[in-house]
């Protein structure tokens, strides 16, 4: 034991390392249980058509409450789920659950689900999408998948082929968080997207920073010339909404339009629970 203690002193980071690994394992265990036992929820955030001002769809955002650690952000647990080989099962649930809700909504509405790089690399995605719309009797064009630029760079040729097949079946594809990742105009040139979601950092700074404004304005123009729907994320104020209208954005999303809410209707409660912190 004295020997072991000596080794601990020799490696001062060891304890912190083990602690981090233990925490991570706790999350992995929790994710396993959640996949099996229904511990996930979807929150839905409205997307408004700017010309009409009407809600045209909702983005489904995954929510997970760890039994001990409380709410954990998808930005934290999705990468862990990918590492642990759980993302296909989680992704399947997200797609199925989003479609189950969509089936009860007005037919003019669509639902968007986020798809990570690992999901896009797997053969299962196409099956999950097809199964979900068939089971719920939905037209494929009412389901949109959101991918980030990071998902495109891993194996561009393979991903391009996959996206093409998904799109041929009628599903819509959005490029998420545009402008922040490994942005490349070649993505817009080589791949067919239905929608560009311009990252909220541009909207946030546009009013005070002429350079952000210039990039935002130019991206909207570029999108329009490509025949793609331009969509601004992170619209938090009426001023930002007015700005999006002025530069000709097609769609807007953000706290000013509506927060992500978990429908509790399944539990017999006809109200919604807010999932993001108040601004
Ligand atoms: P995202 O797809 O870009 O989602 C938008 C994020 O911004 C959401 O955070 C949303 O709650 C937040 N948001 C919406 N409006 C505003 C606003 O006006 N201001 C600010 N400050 N934030 C706003 P969330 O739900 O924490 O999701 C974070 C990321 O996690 C998502 O980014 C997406 O990449 C990923 N994600 C969420 N759900 C899923 C899922 O089911 N599957 C996968 N693979 N990834 C998911
Ligand atoms: Mg998204
Ligand atoms: Mg986004
Ligand atoms: Mg994001």
TrEMBL record:
Secretion signal, residue range per the UniProt entry: none
Domain of life: Bacteria
Start and end residues of each EAL domain: 24-274
Protein name as annotated: EAL domain-containing protein
Organism: Sphingomonas zeae
């Amino acid at each position: 034991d004295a020997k072991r203690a000596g080794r601990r002193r020799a490696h001062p980071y060891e304890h912190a390392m083990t602690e981090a690994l233990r925490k991570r394992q706790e999350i992995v265990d929790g994710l396993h249980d959640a996949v099996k036992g229904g511990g996930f929820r979807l929150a839905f955030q409205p997307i408004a058509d700017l010309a009409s001002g009407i809600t045209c769809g909702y983005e489904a955002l995954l929510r997970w409450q760890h039994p001990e650690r409380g709410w954990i952000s998808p930005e934290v647990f999705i990468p862990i789920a990918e590492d642990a080989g759980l993302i296909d099962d989680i992704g399947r649930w997200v797609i199925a659950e989003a479609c189950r809700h969509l089936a009860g909504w007005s037919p003019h509405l669509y639902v968007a689900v986020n798809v990570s790089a690992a999901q896009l690399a797997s053969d299962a995605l196409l099956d999950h999408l097809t199964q979900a719309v068939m089971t719920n009797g939905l037209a494929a064009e009412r389901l949109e998948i959101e991918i980030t630029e990071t998902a495109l760079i891993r194996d561009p040729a393979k991903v391009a082929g996959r996206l093409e097949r998904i799109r041929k079946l009628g599903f819509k594809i959005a490029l998420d968080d545009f402008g922040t990742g490994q942005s490349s105009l070649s993505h817009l040139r080589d791949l067919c997207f239905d929608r560009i979601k311009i990252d909220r950092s541009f909207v946030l700074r546009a009013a005070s920073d002429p350079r952000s404004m210039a990039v935002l304005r130019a991206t909207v123009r570029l999108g329009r010339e490509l025949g793609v729907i331009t969509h601004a994320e992170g619209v938090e104020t009426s001023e930002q909404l007015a700005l999006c209208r002025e530069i000709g954005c097609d769609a807007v999303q953000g706290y000013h339009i509506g927060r992500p809410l978990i429908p509790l209707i399944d539990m017999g409660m006809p109200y919604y629970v807010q999932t993001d912190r108040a601004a």
